[in-house]
Amino acid sequence: MKDTVRNMIATINQTISGDPEFEFLSGFWHYPGQAGLLGMQVLWTSDAEYALRKAKADRYIMRITNQKFLDLLNGLIDQTVTDLAPLDRTRVETMITIHVH
Predict the structure, then answer these.
(1) Separation of alpha carbons 69 and 53, rounded Å
(2) Predicted local distance difference test score (pLDDT) of residue 1
(3) Are 38 and 17 spatial neighbours (Cβ–Cβ below 8 Å)?
(4) Which candidate, 42, 41, 47, 43, places its Cα nearest to that of 62?
(5) Which residues form a coiled coil (predicted)?
(6) Rounded distance between C-alpha atoms, residue 9 and residue 32, angstroms
(7) Per-residue pLDDT, 78
(8) Which residues contact 9 (CB under 8 A, 6 or more apart)?
(9) With CB atoms 3.0 to 4.6 Å apart as the test, which of 3, 22, 25, 46 could cross-link to 75 if both were Cys?
(10) 31 falls in which pLDDT band (50, 70, 90)?
């Protein structure tokens, strides 16, 4: 079990880091809840760090990054009005809570 969780986390991390076109809202359903949460945090951290590094050279990067985060949040919120199984609904609600905080 431990090795499996480790492999899933490594896989989602590689997917997020290696594929700039990775669509998180459709991709996180392929992973267990914990890996999806961690993936979202990795995505947020890498995007925030990138924006902070580029902030001196690009005065719009923080605005663009904030919009990306808002788009992710709104996409998660849109998921809550769809027909979801109770476990999936809890999963999306948890991701919203973590993303907001």
Answers:
(1) 17
(2) 63
(3) no
(4) 47
(5) none
(6) 9
(7) 94
(8) 34, 35, 38, 39
(9) 25
(10) confident
The number of folded domains in the chain is 1
Q: Show the domain range for 7.
A: 2-100
pTM of the model: 0.83
Tokens of 9: 């986390």
Write a three-state SS string for the chain: CHHHHHHHHHHHHHHHHHCCCCCHHHHHHHCCHHHHHHHHHHHHHHHHHHHHHHCCCCCCHHHHHHHHHHHHHHHHHHHHCCCCCHHHHHHHHHHHHHHHC
Largest interatomic CA distance in the chain: 46
Average pLDDT over residues 16-39: 81
